[in-house]
Amino acid sequence: MASGDPLVLGIETSCDETGVALVRGNDLLFDAVASSMDEHARYGGIIPEVASRAHLEAMVPTIERSLGEAGVSLDEVDAIAVTAGPGLVGPLTIGVSAAKSLAVALDKPLYGVNHVIGHAAVDQLVHGEFPERVMALVVSGGHSSLLLVDDVATSVTELGSTLDDAAGEAFDKVGRLLGLPYPGGPHIDRLAREGDPTAIRFPRGLTARKDQAEHAYDFSFSGLKTAVARWVETRQDAGEAFSLEDVAASFADAVADVLTAKTIAACQRHGVDTLVVGGGFSANSQLRDMAALRCAEAGIELRIPPIRYCTDNGAMIAALGSAVVRAGVAPSDLGIGVDSSMPLTTVTV
Ligand code: KG4
Ligand code: ZN
């Protein structure tokens, strides 16, 4: 462990997970997560008010658990990093308020950082410091973004994002129309493993030649979702039997195909030979298999952290905070607000 590096406490509350972690350099001391997902499942989506209240209740116990398990006291913490956006305003506000209180009480610097970039930065805790340039594909229920990372602490370029649904969101919506429980993503993944991905040729959004000028690295999944809905409705209306597994496999194949094809094209175009995949959707088997295959073919090193660091957590924010502090970036003002649609080029506010 690089004991000379500052000890950073990271706080994440952008959605339904209250995450608190302690990181020194690229070493994770402890990462505690409390989730309110069970409280949202019956609504079929995240209810911001319910999430905010859960964050408020979980915040102090989660901080205490993290410190206790890491065996450090609050006065040993050198800096506080917190998700300042993007995310849900109420939940973000709880985390930022907690972080500001700690910064004031401990007289330590505050760093309001970008959640999506945190999804990439966390990989440094697992696979070590990034090489000079990496490509990051961040895919979850809330985001699908392709980032060119020259320096995770200071220089990130957004090459593309989804124009409508995020990959996980598309899975959840298709899950709903297939009658699967929320969130539908993992259920479709499971069904897809039993089906034939070539059974139905679903559309690949924004891959036509005409889209290349403006949207080469953007994604669109809402047309695909509609195509699946139409295909299923047509069969149901005609009273025709069909294989749910084949629908799931063909749909999952379309999503994985577009995500990996565009990402690898971006790596080749920018001369990048390391790809980091993060976000909860990186659990998806079809994406993992296709990314592994296509990266191997293209000579690209694929880095995917274990799934507990891909879903929302405090380690990703502490990891990014650690990188930012080590890069000598100026701390955030104590008056910072939250930014629900923080641009992906902003690493620290
Ligand atoms: O990062 P995450 O935990 O929460 C945010 O959205 O920020 O990601 C959850 C999303 C959900 O949409 C969920 O259905 C999807 O990722 N997901 C999956 C799989 N595991 C999680 N989608 C497809 N296949 C999976 N194995
Ligand atoms: Zn996230």
Automatic annotation (TrEMBL):
Cofactor-binding details, from the entry: Binds 1 Fe(2+) ion per subunit.
Domain Gcp-like, residue spans: 29-318
Enzyme class: transferase
InterPro entries with a match to the protein in the record: ATPase_NBD, Gcp-like_dom, KAE1/TsaD, Peptidase_M22_CS, TsaD
EC number(s) on file: 2.3.1.234
Cofactors named for this entry: Fe(2+)
PROSITE patterns (alphabetical): GLYCOPROTEASE
GO BP field: tRNA threonylcarbamoyladenosine modification
Main localization (coarse): cytoplasm
Keyword Disulfide bond: no
An example Gene Ontology CC term for this record: cytoplasm
Binding residues annotated for Fe cation, in chain numbering: 115, 119, 312
Family as reported in the entry's similarity comment: Belongs to the KAE1 / TsaD family.
Protein name (database record): tRNA N6-adenosine threonylcarbamoyltransferase
GN (gene name): tsaD
